[in-house]
Records
---
Amino acid sequence: MKHDSYDDSYLAGILNETKTIALVGASPNPARPSYGVMRFLLSRGYRVVPVNPGQEGKEIHGQTVYGTLADIPEPVDMVDVFRASDAVPGVVDEALALDPRPKIIWTQLGVRHADAAARAEAAGLRVVMDRCPAIEMPRLSHLLARRD
């Protein structure tokens, strides 16, 4: 799949079916984008599991932080990546090792890695790169189901 643009229905479908999100690179610092996006996703009814080895065992927005994806004690639907592009292959490796696997790899604004995306897609995962769900959700609100 090309990752330069996405059909609105593709993004809305992902956001509608997702219930649990592992947020890799979560930060307790209110100045960091991951902090605000995590708060936004929680306010929209998603279960968000923060992942950051430097914060393991602490809490962000009342949610326990895990060191790795493998440490999360429940299945996740989406892995949302707030890391540099060169970290994406490792995150994809971690996601592909999970059982069950997540359905989606989503990388944040400015985060792209074509080879890692191709590996994830070859394994049956859907990929969104260089997008932010906190931007896409308001834009696609007319296509999204209510999450009460």
---
Amino acid sequence: MSEALQPEDVLRLSPVMPVVVIDDAAHAVQLARTLLAGGVKTIEITLRTPAALDAIRAIATEAPEMIVGAGTVLTADDLDAAIAAGARYALSPGGTSKLMKAARKQDIPFIPGVATASEVQRGLQLGYRCFKLFPAEQLGGVSAVKALAGPFPSIRFCPTGSITPEKAPGYLALDNVLCVGGSWIAPADKIRSGDWAGIEAAARQAAALR
């Protein structure tokens, strides 16, 4: 994989991976620099808005020290587009066999989403060892992730979904959790209003969780 970046490397970049929905790519570079100033080295730009790919491209070009990834990658075409824009890794809320097989042929880490033990087994069969557990809180939270360590001791997770700053430490205390996904660090309203001080403060708190 490019520059030897592996899925576990991606998930160890920050205790909290900022999950970002961005409406205006013009904010992307400032956002990346603000997160870096707060000690967060990565950002997941979700492919939920028309601005997402342009935001990834802007960060990759103008703030290359930030390791930018693409989230909400649902198809092989999404993955191709994210890579073309400069994404260094990609995540999906789920993981179809078609998408996971396509991702194995690419040169960036891909972290598929799972919600059940059966989905973990399907991912294992295709060579995956790191997964996004989504939606984490709705699936049972910390106790659910802890239970998965029994049958899958070698698997590592990034739980995402309704996790708050108060709940994050409980996940991060588990050996099978490398990071959590969090939308609270850089919510869309703070990005739109340019509350960079607030975002940097949240980033600093998140970076200190582990």
---
Amino acid sequence: MQPDVSASHIPHIQQALQFAIEQQQINLVYQGQNAFPSQKLVGFEALCRITAGPWGEISPEQFIPVAEQTGLIAPLERLVFSQLARDLPLLIGRYPSIRVGVNLSIRHMAEPDFLSFIDRWLKELPKPLIEHLDFEITETYFQRISQTVIDGLHALRARGIRIVMDDFGSGQSSLARLHKLPFDVLKLDRQFIQQIDHPMVYAIVKAVVALTREFGIELIAEGVETAEQCKALEALNCQFVQGFFFSRPQALTHWLSLQNVPTL
């Protein structure tokens, strides 16, 4: 998805971001991830929102690119992790078998103290929660991370954390390099699902489903919004889905209040 940010709006959005960070006015919402076709809940993706102020509502498509460009992504993500640490015990207490994914920025990961920050954060979590975590990294970023960070990702995987390659197919990664990258799950970029009625796109999705099944890698199809897309994915035996057709991002209180939600 292309960021909807013009140069003239950047100072305005940066001001809103700085205020939200200084006042710790960020919120997390959670979008469900479902097994398919059973639709049983298997996980959540934690998504950041900033509280509306005098500047009005600012979407993640607007503030995330600005946070990346201005160096505010590291303090923003640290607030996200702080909130996630408070939410995780409640989510896992309510849904004991699910996983929870959180996005990592390459700019934050490139900070000299990133790995030590993550290590401290994990040490403060109750140990049983760690194996419920997915760290999501955009495919494009996988081409830019240093060997030090790659080594750190291997260490995180050894602790039970899954590494998710997000927006797969949106970047320019070589298929020949996939086996060298530290990841456990692929999330197929939403553009493929939104165009799955095109024969060539359908064939590409079919090939990715076959590839992941062959190597025992989980595949999550993102951006599922229509019944027709569901039918196409079911025909291809896609195992996991995420999108508005199943659930919109919702506050923690929403998910905690639901009754009799089937889970794997």
---
Amino acid sequence: MRLRFRFVDGLPGGAYEELITTGLDALVRRSGLQTVVEGLDSAEAPEILAAHLERVATRVLDSLPIERRLSVVNGVLSGLIADTGRATESDLVADPPAMLYSVGAATERPQNPLRRADLLINARGEPALHEELVAEIASADRVDLLCAFIKWQGLSS
């Protein structure tokens, strides 16, 4: 999890990796501190801009009444369809909004959402690593696994 700072009372000095918004640009200018700024790398730009759009959209949608959210989302998507031609009508969210959780024979679902990458730590009260793996693998068409195993003895040395 990345910590996100809200720059309310100024801009603390330190290392950053933040997309410069108009609000952040104003804080940087007011700070009078020396800065290092680089243009967006064209290969990373889509991911960085999409992440910013996701944060703003989440904040906006969270503030709206539930009955308004669908029209706002489909309005943004309609703008993308009209402006770029890279999105299509099939990208619009169906009304009423719903999630598809299985097709065909029902499979056991993991406790953590499939749409999100989570850190499984096998701690008390958390989903058991082996149970989550079994549930994930049962419905996977591909598996990418990165894991580190640390024993208490290794930490205490």
